[in-house]
Amino acid sequence: MPRLLFFPASLPSFSSSPLSLLQVDVLTRIYPCGECATHFAALVRARPPDTTSGPALRAWACEAHNAVNASLGKPAFNCRLVGARWAPLDCGEGGEDGSGGACALK
Questions:
Q1: Which of 85, 90, 97, 99 is the most exposed place for a label (fewest CB within 10 A)?
Q2: What is the set of domains in the chain, with CATH numbers?
Q3: Do the Cβ atoms of 89 and 55 come closer than 8 Å?
Q4: What does each C-alpha distance from 75 to 15, 65, 70 come to in angstroms?
Q5: What are the pLDDT tens digits along the chain (106 aa)?
Q6: CB 22 within 8 A of CB 10
Q7: Rounded to two decimals, what is the model's pTM?
Q8: In the Cβ-directed half-sphere of 84, how many Cα atoms lie within 13 Å?
């Protein structure tokens, strides 16, 4: 899940794209523990990811992480610290060729 937390705030088209939803869907299928994968898939169905922006997706990922921790009896992570723990990528201003910066999808 940490990969989701690095989505840059400046790229709403990337974080709101079907790619971010696909990444969450893949996460529900690749958990090494089948029971965990089933539980996470149910959590995602009940509370779909908010892919409107990088910060919204990070907030959703943190809340999902805390829901899993609660079910395991583990302490919650302070979601106000997500930006400090997993800072967004710095994609720069974009290249002269209109490439959109270091994080542009090609």
A1: 97
A2: 2-74 (1.20.120.310)
A3: no
A4: 28, 10, 7
A5: 545 555 555 544 544 567 777 778 888 888 778 888 888 899 999 999 888 877 888 889 899 989 988 998 999 999 999 877 776 666 665 555 555 555 555 4
A6: no
A7: 0.66
A8: 5
